[in-house]
Automatic annotation (TrEMBL):
PROSITE patterns: FBOX. Gene3D superfamilies: Glutaredoxin. This is 18325_t:CDS:1. The lineage of its organism: Eukaryota, Fungi, Fungi incertae sedis, Mucoromycota, Glomeromycotina. Transmembrane segments: none annotated. Residues 227-273 form the F-box domain.
Length: 334
């Protein structure tokens, strides 16, 4: 398979719905799975096994391979973690040659009709040809691949399929490693934020020292008519104004107008930094040392309905990066 190929930005699925591949690739670890042909008895086994690992709401207790009679079981705590990977981190596009009626039967038998995953009927194999997976006039090479965000570059995870040879372990390992990498980066960012938080707290302490407080009192004790009107507002409103300033430049200008504004600005930055650190920290469910799942934490967050996929974690990471940049540019340099 040519690993330099790119997936199309849009498709039309089995139900006639438009599929925005570009947007899905940004919101999920977007995975496509190709089925060799509708008559192939091996290819759908992969989908059954993914159901067993938590893709289905009510997975079976075990899976018996129809070919080598192997029985696969998954411990309940592992299902919880795999479900996080398969249903919140990942999203699936299934590609299969026609006819449509037979693809519908596969979707129904695999219980994929209960999920919003897109089945693509590639009757003329034009899609398979464009991504280098056309096997013959009527068949597609079985493959599991990741459609990279933004570029839509195709990254193969597992190639081929046969009895007892499905690639589901490679897929689960890939999703696990992907999440572990995101969480590892988040952990390093938290450490950086913690260092900056310590410096911020020191700056806040200095600004709130007895000498500086006295100067603020002198400023704020000026006759009402000589004080800027905005400084007469309640502290809650002043903080709200800071939180809604649109640019760092405006933020810096306002903070430089008086010691009171600087003290308030530092407090707002510190509050936001602490909040964003907590938001990111509360989303992490793998152990720092080896990336293994923290099952007790996963179950705790699951019961609270607070398990985040990697897309949500990355959004929180971006917010934390923003507040770190503000802290560095305004506080650290001053």
């Amino acid at each position: 398979m040519d690993t330099t190929v790119n997936f199309p930005k849009t498709l039309v699925d089995l139900d006639g719905s438009n599929v925005n591949v570009y947007e899905l690739s940004r919101r999920y670890v977007l995975i496509f799975i190709t089925l060799k042909a509708t008559w192939c008895p091996v290819c759908p086994q992969l989908l059954y096994i993914l159901n067993l690992h938590g893709l289905h709401d009510d997975p079976p207790s075990s899976f018996r391979d129809a070919f080598d009679r192997t029985i696969i079981t998954v411990p309940q705590e592992e299902i919880t973690f795999y479900r996080l990977l398969l249903r919140q981190d990942a999203f699936f596009i299934i590609i299969c040659p026609g006819p449509v009626r037979e693809v519908l039967q596969i979707r129904s038998s695999c219980n994929f009709s209960h999920f919003p995953y897109h089945f693509i009927v590639d009757e003329d194999l034009s899609l398979a040809t464009s991504i280098g997976l056309r096997m013959s006039r009527e068949e597609i090479w079985p493959c599991i691949a990741h459609i990279k965000p933004t570029t839509l570059a195709v990254h193969p995870i597992f190639f081929g399929r046969g009895p007892g040879f499905y690639g589901y372990k490679d897929l689960l390992n890939y999703l696990h490693d992907y999440r572990a990498t995101v969480e590892y980066n988040a952990t390093n960012l938290i450490l950086k934020a913690t260092e900056i938080k310590t410096r911020l707290e020191k700056s806040v302490t200095i600004e709130n020292s007895a000498e500086n407080v006295q100067q603020q009192i002198i400023q704020t004790d000026q006759p009402q008519q000589n004080r800027p009107e905005i400084l007469t507002l309640p502290i809650e409103i002043l903080i709200h104004i800071f939180e809604n300033l649109e640019t760092i430049e405006v933020f810096k200008i306002v903070m430089s107008t008086s010691r009171l504004w600087r003290a308030i600005g530092l407090e707002v930055i510190l509050i936001n930094l602490r909040n964003e650190v907590k938001q990111v920290s509360d989303s992490l469910v793998t152990n720092i040392r080896d990336g293994s799942p923290n099952y007790s934490l996963i179950n705790k967050l699951r019961y609270k309905n607070k398990l985040d996929g990697v897309y949500q974690i990355n959004q929180k990471i971006n917010k934390l990066i923003t507040i770190i940049e503000i802290s560095q540019r305004i506080v650290i340099k001053n």
